[in-house]
Each structure stands twice: as structure tokens, then as C-alpha cells.
Hints:
heterotetramer, A: alpha/beta, Rossmann fold, 7-stranded mixed sheet, 5-stranded mixed sheet, 11 helices, 14 strands, about 20% strand, C: alpha/beta, two-stranded antiparallel ribbon, 7 strands, binds thiamine diphosphate, binds magnesium ion
Amino acid sequence: MREITYAEAIREALREEMRRDERVFIIGEDVGVYGGSFGVTLGLIEEFGPQRVIDTPISELGIAGAITGAALIGMRPVGEIMFMDFCTLAMEQLVNQAAKIRFMFGGKATVPFVLRTPAGSGTGAAAQHSQSLENWFVHVPGLKVVMPSTPYDAKGLLLSAIRDDNPVIFVEHKLLYKVKGPVPEDPYTVPLGTAEVKRQGGDITIVATSIMVRRSLEAAERLAHEGIEAEVVDPRTLKPLDEATIIRSVCRTGRVLIVHEACRTGGFGGELAAVIAGSEAFDYLDAPIVRLAGRDIPIPYNRTLEYHSVPQVDDIIAAARRLVHGAA
Amino acid sequence: MREITYAEAIREALREEMRRDERVFIIGEDVGVYGGSFGVTLGLIEEFGPQRVIDTPISELGIAGAITGAALIGMRPVGEIMFMDFCTLAMEQLVNQAAKIRFMFGGKATVPFVLRTPAGSGTGAAAQHSQSLENWFVHVPGLKVVMPSTPYDAKGLLLSAIRDDNPVIFVEHKLLYKVKGPVPEDPYTVPLGTAEVKRQGGDITIVATSIMVRRSLEAAERLAHEGIEAEVVDPRTLKPLDEATIIRSVCRTGRVLIVHEACRTGGFGGELAAVIAGSEAFDYLDAPIVRLAGRDIPIPYNRTLEYHSVPQVDDIIAAARRLVHGAA
Amino acid sequence: MEWSHDKLIDMLRTMWLIRAFEEKAEELYALGKVHGTMHLSIGQEASAVGAVSALRADDFVLSTHRGHGHCIAKGADLNRMMAEFMGKETGYCRGRGGSMHIADTAGGNLGANGVVGGGLPLAVGVGLGLKMQKRSQIVLCFFGDGAANNGAFHEALNMAAIWKLPVVFLCENNQYAISLSVKKAIAIEHIADRAAAYGMPGITADGNDVLAVHEAVSQAASRAREGAGPSLIESVTYRWRGHSKSDANRYRTRDEIEAWKARCPIQRFTARLIADGTLTEEDADKLRQEAYAVVEAAVAFAESSPEPRLETIEEGVYA
Amino acid sequence: MEWSHDKLIDMLRTMWLIRAFEEKAEELYALGKVHGTMHLSIGQEASAVGAVSALRADDFVLSTHRGHGHCIAKGADLNRMMAEFMGKETGYCRGRGGSMHIADTAGGNLGANGVVGGGLPLAVGVGLGLKMQKRSQIVLCFFGDGAANNGAFHEALNMAAIWKLPVVFLCENNQYAISLSVKKAIAIEHIADRAAAYGMPGITADGNDVLAVHEAVSQAASRAREGAGPSLIESVTYRWRGHSKSDANRYRTRDEIEAWKARCPIQRFTARLIADGTLTEEDADKLRQEAYAVVEAAVAFAESSPEPRLETIEEGVYA
Ligand SMILES: Cc1ncc(C[n+]2csc(CCOP(=O)(O)OP(=O)(O)O)c2C)c(N)n1
Ligand SMILES: Cc1ncc(C[n+]2csc(CCOP(=O)(O)OP(=O)(O)O)c2C)c(N)n1
Ligand SMILES: [Mg+2]
Ligand SMILES: [Mg+2]
């Protein structure tokens, strides 16, 4: 199959959906000729014009309001917040309005939008441009939260997200944008709420999100050389969460390592651990549940410090080894 | 000992600290003659004047900036956000600036402020005035998060929080404001980062926060009649968390019920479950870890629906019973 | 402006409906029949009615926490409104919303809002959607003097202005944001003067004169409908009651309140209609009585309506 | 205004230091010696130097992502600045901050900011603190044309105005927020005109004329220091380089860039000083050379400085 990058896969999904459905439009800072900070929307304004690829002032709350209000009267906007850190300026509209309108209005309205935003560290952008805040959104009823780890998933999940009738927070990872992978040219969807077992193995379950899926797969290959077979489960959608797939895997392996980039404390790893520890998998657990996550620090600028702020392949290998060999 | 309300205890802490330290001031919407939406600051403007009890426009981001900037040059502000829901408008300054400044500047600055805010449902204020968003802040390195459950703790923790050199999010519960309890008249502090075993018992550990501590204690009394002795642990400070006290209790009881009002998914209960399931307490667990939390819905207006949106005493009793009798 | 007889009568009737609804709401609250909070617009009826009556029926409205008047002016069914206020299944939001969240999306009311300024960014989206859909409707966005100091105001007005969106921003300046006098909250005379910062027209209107508000909004609405972009209208008025259910009025004087009561928008309008012969005293009295009767009927409807069933509590979070 | 010889020379020297620092930063970046991103203010030196030179040494500055110039103008030690840029332990932030977060709190620079508009609410707090402490210092808050459309701008200017805080708001209007032309981002001519919405003076200054900026800020600073409250100054200028490390310049023309380069603030100021006899060509050349030498020394210092130790990675989150 043809290989394209994660960024290209996202762009392709946007293009296909904009061709198919004229209610879909793009709005955000510098999404037009500039193509967005990571070039994801490059070329779209040329095809669809400035009416459907809308550059905004630096008004994150306004962007969130624009997609919510437009969705409320029948459009299907795809908004972009340039860095996930700046969602901090848009939370009111996303959380108090978009997420709640449907319930609060007694089910009489829908707010079908997608909000795309790049998260994560690794680019040297330091503390205010590197956060992974997905668990904030997971905590808000009414929102769905998607975090693709491959170009294939990115395209398929984005198409599903745009067609979904709910507000969806679509979290991309900056370091994944240039990663290539096989992606069908025709439109296809990956359903929201379905995890994927990205690698099978019987010794340990690694539940990882976003770029940590990639790192976990690499770790798993290396662990295999030592005789440890890791199963790597990618939830893909954090909310709604496909609990069954995760639990099934843990029941088989009896050991679970949770890996995410966001700061450990208060992160999505807690949710995963609680889901597992509260489920039938509890009886199958042979060892404590281990979370490997970003350190509880703002992301530092220095390259070495930045690198060691979040889990790397070696960290995953070491944690899996400890867990399997019982020195957890 | 003299009994006063939770609101009075908070006011007393503010008054004592403002008398003691002239760097302390209060700022927020209607904190002056109006006394705040829940009357907490009533009377303070009369004693300290409008220079130290400052009414602001409806500018939550501005309030957060005001306390951060003032703290940066040596003041010790106590800000108020009228409802926790409106912290959504202040997240940028709280999360990107206040929380990170110290680390980001290489340790060369401190941001000593307290941000008080009432959370929780039960007053019929519906979806946009009833949220419990504490886990968002727990997820942010650099912030401390405090949630007192009694008048005694409220006063002692607030004094500690004001004297702390870090930004502290101080989460109050609307339904607790009128609850009375013993409070010493003289200043005293409850150290941040120390949990309290609010009731001892050997059959089950209930870890509860804020108003759920009160409900859990009531549930525990009733459970005692059935022969179930519950230990109730109140973390009091969610960040930093006194993990040791919680783990010690679970090691003794082998069963844990986590109770909070915030929505279950992505909430602080996940953090607690993960801490326990990843600790030495894992080996002592006789049953899955149970989370009893707010439903994953916006808080509805209707009184009955609102009541059943979050854990009540009967729910806690039922959950504890199931857990102890093994039908979890 | 030319006024049709029916239109004038209709405006007065609507003002009475609002007054009657809110007096009843207050009473129900005092009786403990509703919980939560509510924000009464008694004294501000001219603003809601003047503004909404300048719209087409298919136009949209975004309202505020003090939104009963906007909702009634937009033609809401009082039965369903009262049922919502009482948290009943037959209410506009099936009892999930309550006073602060009443929405009648089918009728073009996109909702009250518990967040001060929360409707302003939404107005950008609605305006943008309408423009993209090439519809001829516009959206009227209400907010208070307090909301005008929130960042949402700034971003929304700027975005609406640069894209020439079909939005009318209507600031109901009732002199206070809870206890904070607008005189302490801004360092200028008129909120409408902020329009200049966005390159849009700004008009200050007497918010207790229903026809003055109507005229200002009519002009702004035409402008919006023609594609010439948004306007900012400041409707200067006053709330007679406290901010919400409880309010000791520590921040204003009894004299001030009385002075504004003397400028009652309903009495002023009635006097004018009687003076110009549109109405007799008796007609006016009948209108008033009818309004109170409609509200009584709404209470009866609401009281006899079922509560939401507990089993449905988790419905409607997701589509 | 009266200008002392030394002051004029000092201003030119500082402008050269900024130019030299940023040219070197660009070079180091191209060589792969730094990672992350950076935002160069080449072409805007008059704005930084004109503004900061109008302050007292003990006044405060809040800067932006495009903050090297502000930092140097505020008297930063170039060694520590360059070390920070290169992520070294000897840097102002021990290598934790990098280009976008350089702060020299002891020197009154309360930090660059990665968040557009992020410094504006902070300015309210600093101004409030200074006022409460009854100090005579003021705070100068830099931000861009893009930041002027964020809600933070609105809330901050309003709060500073109603409390008459000692703040000077300085908007560096360099015509673009990344790719968005200010002409598309606002529907008015001058950002300074927004001052009227808050009841404060607004002045548009030629941001490529160091003395014009100095004069505007001097007035605003006096006003602030006297307790008369904040001002908004718009310094109209242009960035020669792309927005950040990478920028294909798809949103502007080469002609436009060239036209602005012809108005180089350093050349203009040099010509003026030579014309009025303050400086000879040789003096000017010497200043320039010295600046580049200082920067070379800073690079040497930074390169020979140690990296932060990994064991210290978790230090400094809490006090
Ligand atoms: C963002 C936000 N902050 C604070 C509040 C609490 N609050 C509710 S109404 C109100 C005052 C609103 O004043 P204004 O906009 O003038 O409207 P009015 O109540 O006078 O009609 C405040 C502060 C809120 N609901 N939302
Ligand atoms: C709140 C926020 N939104 C978006 C960004 C991404 N961003 C960085 S600089 C910039 C443009 C800033 O424009 P302006 O304020 O004019 O400053 P300039 O870069 O022109 O100096 C943007 C959008 C950001 N850093 N912060
Ligand atoms: Mg008001
Ligand atoms: Mg700019």
C-alpha cells in the first residue's frame, strides 16, 4: 500500500471530507496559505478558498465559539488550536458550552465539530508549547477524545470524528507528523471507541497512547529478543474507551504497563489503571499495575532534559523487564 | 471547642492572615460589600478597605493574571473565582504562567498565591455552576491542590496555603459552607500534603474527598450497625498527595472504595486507584478497587436528577456493602 | 418609524407576559417550589421586547442568565418555559436546564447561558454559519454590562467585525454586574463607545423605551442582513430586583431603585399608547390581566407535568 | 526632548547588540547548535531600545516570544542570555527556559512569554503589586499586533485603566501575526485607537524611529509613575525575518520586505547621529564591531558552559 505521513493522512481526510460534505470547513490560526504551524492544512485554501479555510486572529476562545455556534446551526466545522497548550484559553466554550449543550438543552441540539490540536514534546519548544492535556477533556462528559498513533488511524479516525454528531477533541502528536505509514487512498473510517491490539504477545500488556504506541512497539521488538512477548494495545479513542479490549488483554497476560507522555499525576494512566483494577482483570493480575508517564515537571528546553522528561524506548523496555521479572 | 461554619472558618483564616501579613490581599468578583457569592468574605472590606479587598470586573483571566503578577513581585494574593466552572476562563494564566514560572525561570522566581473557588453540585445551579474540576489542576506540575472537608481543616489548610510559596488551588464545596464544626480561635496550620484518617476501621478503606468525606463518615456510622467497620481517609491535599497514609490503610483493610463527586471518567479517583494498584498495597488487596463518583453527565437542574448525579450516603453504603460481601 | 397598531399592542402584551412570568417565578421560588437560582429582569422588559420585536421570526437569539424576557419575546410557549423553570419533563430542556439554560432551538432561541459572556463567542459561530449557508437570517446576541469586560466580548466583536457577520450585539447595561457598578468596572461613559475599537457602529439607546430599542435594533438588523456587518447597541436600563434569588442590596441605595422604578418601561409605554389613542385604559388593563392568566395557566401546566424519570438521567449526553 | 550624548550612543550600541545577537542566533540555529524555535526581531530594534531606554533601571518589563531585543535593552548579560539560548546551566533559566522564556528577574525582566498575550494579565498583577507596595516603579508590557485580538488584551487594559495602575502597554505592530496581516485581523486603522475603549491615552509611534518610541514611552511612563494610569502605545514596525525558524513567506511580498529594510532603524539612527555630529562614521563602525565581538564572546561563554545535569531534572517545580 501507498505510504504517506501522518500529516498527509490528516490533510487527505480533511480534503476528502470537504469535497464530500460542504458543511465541513476549517478554521484556525494560520491554517490558510501558511498551512498551519506544522503544515497540515497546506494546499487546502488553494482548493477550497478562504470561505472554507478560515484564518483567524489569535482568539482561541473565539475559535471555540465559532465552531460551537456554527455546529449548532448545522455546519460541521474542523477547528484548529495551534498548540494544545492554548486550549487553556478555549476551555470555557469547549467545556461549558459545546460539551454540555446537548444534555443541558434536553437533547434538542447537537454540536458536531472536531477540534484538532497538536500535543507533546520533543521539538525543543519548552514548557508552554509541549503539554499533553488530553485527560482534561476525557474528564468532560459530552466530549469525545481521539489520539491517533499512525497515519492509517489518523485518516480513518478523523473521518469518523468529522461525521460524528458530537464535539470531538482530536489530539495529534508533533513528532508523528513526519512519520510515514500505509494509508489507503479511498476514504475509510476507523470507528470511534475501538481500541486496536497493535501487537500480540502473552507476557505483558502495554497500553499506550499516541506516540507512546510507536515507542512501545519498538520496545516490544527489542523485548522479544530477550524472550518477553509484549502485547501492545492502542485505545485510539480515549473517550469513549474500549475497555473490553484492554481488559481482555490483561486477563490473558496478567501484567500491565501503562505508557503515556502526559504528566503522570492526574493523567489518563490513572483512568486506565482504575478501569483495570476495578474490572474482572483484577483477579488475573500477577503484579501491581505500573504507570510509565511524563515526569511531573513542565517540559524543559534543554534537549537532554526534554528527552528525559517523557518515556523513551529504553524506559519502556526497562519498565517491562522489571514488571515481567517481578522486581516492580 | 467553639463551633463555627466552614465559611466562617475560611473567613477567619483570611482575616487572621491579613492582620498578620500585609502582603496578603483578596481579589475577585463581588468579594467586597457583597461578600462573595456565598458570603465567605463578608465584612472583610469593612476591616481592610477596598485596597486590600478588591472587587474586579468579570475578567477571570485577568484575576488569574493579577494574582500571578502580584505574587511575582512579592505580594501574597488570595484570588477568588466565583464558581469553579469559570476557572475554564483562567486556565491559561494558572497553567501556562503561574504553575510553570518557577521551573521555567530556572528556580529564580516564586508565585505564592491561593486561588479559592467553590465547586460541587447540590444547589440547583445546573450544568455550568456545579462542576468539580480539581483533577485538571492535580495534573499540572507546579500547582498544589487542597480540598478541605471540615471547618477545622478549612481554616488550618488555608493558613498553610497562604504561607506556602507556591500557587495553591483551594477548592471549597458549596454545600459545606454552612456546615459547623469545632475550630480553635487562635491561628493554627494543617500542613499541606498530609492526609487524615477521619475514622478508623478494619474492614474497608474509604478514600474520599471534600463533601464525600462527610457522606462517607455518615455511611460508616450506619455500616457499623451492620458490623462493617470502615476506615475513612481524607487526603485533604490532592497534590502533593500523602500516599503513605492511604497505602498503609489499604494494606490493613485489603479493600478500597474511592469516593468523589467529580465525574468518574478522568477524575482524581483514577489517580488514587493507580497509586494504590501500583504500590505495595497491591499484594494486600482482596477485591477490585471500586470507584464511586459523579456520573459522566453534566449536572442536571431537576432536583431529583441532580441528587442522583453524584454519590449520596446510601450509594456509599451500598458500594461498601458489595465490596465487603464480595459481590463487587 | 411607522408602527402598526397590532405590533404596538403585541409589544405591550409581551412586556406584561414577562413581568407576570417573573413575578410568578419569584413567588414560586419564595414558596420553595423551585430550587436553584434565577435572575429576574423585572424593569428591563422594554429592552428584551424592543430588541426581539425588531427581528424576523426566523432570526436567532442568544440569551443570558437573565434570559426569561428574551425567551418570552422570542415567542416561547409559556407552559414549556414554566415547566422548565420547575424542572419538569415537559419543559424546553426536559427539566435538565432550568432557568439559566432555557433554550427553544426550534423557535430560534439558542439558549440562555449560565456563563457571563458565554453567548458572545457562540454568536460568531452562528453568524459565520449563517453567512456560509447564505441564509438571510441574523443573530441577536444579548449580554450584560458585566460581560462587556470579559475577553469573550473582545474576541467576538473583533471576529464578527472583520468577517462582517450578521450579528447584532446587544448589551443590556443595567448598571451593575452583581454588586459592581458599571462606573467602577469601566473607565468610559458608554459601553457602546467600545464599538469603535472594532470598526462597527455603536449606539446607546434608552433601554426603558421599547420603541427606542426597537428602532436601534431594526437599523442594526438591516445592516447585518445586508452583509454590512455587526453593530453594538447598548440598552441602558435597570433591574429592580436583586441580582439573583438572594441579594441584600448592599451596593445600591433605595433612592436609586425608586428613581428607576419611576421610569417603569411598561407604564411609560402604556401611557404613551393611551395618549396617542392606540389603547384605552380598559384595553391596557385587560392585556395585563390576560398576561397574569396565561402565567397562571402555565403554572397549572407545569405543576401537573411529570418529573423526569430517574432511569433517563444519563440520556442525551451524546448524540 | 533633550538627549545626552551618552544616552544616544548607548541606544545605538544596544540596537547593534540586538542585531548581532539575533544574527548569531540565526546562524547557530542553522548550524544545528540549538534546537527548538526562536523568533527574531531583526528590523524592530528601535522599538525595544526606544521603549526600554525610557524606563528607570529599576522598572519592570514583561516581554514576548519575540523578546531578545527587550531582554538586551533591559540590560541583560549577553553571556547568560546566549547560554540560555543554548540550553546551558549558566543560562538565565539554567537552560530550562530557552529563547521563549528568558527571564532576568533580578534585572527587572519578568520574562519572555510563549503565550501570545500571556504577559498582559501579568502586567495587571505587577502593576497592582507596585501600587499596593507604594513603590515608584512602573511596568512596561510588550505584546504584538496579534496579541491585541486576544481576550487577555481586553481584560488587562480594562483592569489597569479602572485601577489606574502604573503600566505602559506597548504594542509592537509588525504588521503580521505569523501569516495574518493586521489589515485582515482588525477592522480599524490603528491599534492605538483601542485605548479609547478603556479611557486611556493611545499613541501611534513610528516604531523604526528609536527617538520617537522613546518619547512616546517617556510620556506614558511619567503618567504611570504619577499615578495617572496606563497608556497604550502602538509602535509600528516590521520584522525582516520569517515568523520563526521556518517560514516560507507565502503571505507577503519580497517588495514589501525590501521597502521596510530600506527603513532600517539602525541605519536611520546612525545617519541621524552622524548628521547632527554626535558620531563619526568611524565611531559608528566601532560600535557595530564591538557588538559583534561581545556576541562572539557570549557564544564562547555559552559553548564552554556545562549542560544541566540530568539528576537535577526535577528541581525547581516547587519552592
Ligand atoms: C464567566 C462568569 N463569571 C462569573 C459569573 C457569576 N455571575 C453571574 S451573573 C454575574 C453578573 C453579570 O453581570 P452583567 O453581565 O451585567 O449581567 P446582569 O446580571 O446585570 O444582567 C456574575 C458575575 C458567571 N456566571 N460567569
Ligand atoms: C495564545 C497563543 N496562540 C497562538 C500562539 C502561536 N503563535 C506564536 S507567535 C504567534 C503570532 C503572534 O503575533 P504578534 O502578537 O503580532 O507577535 P509577532 O510574532 O508578530 O511579534 C502565534 C499565533 C501562541 N504562542 N499563543
Ligand atoms: Mg448588569
Ligand atoms: Mg505581529
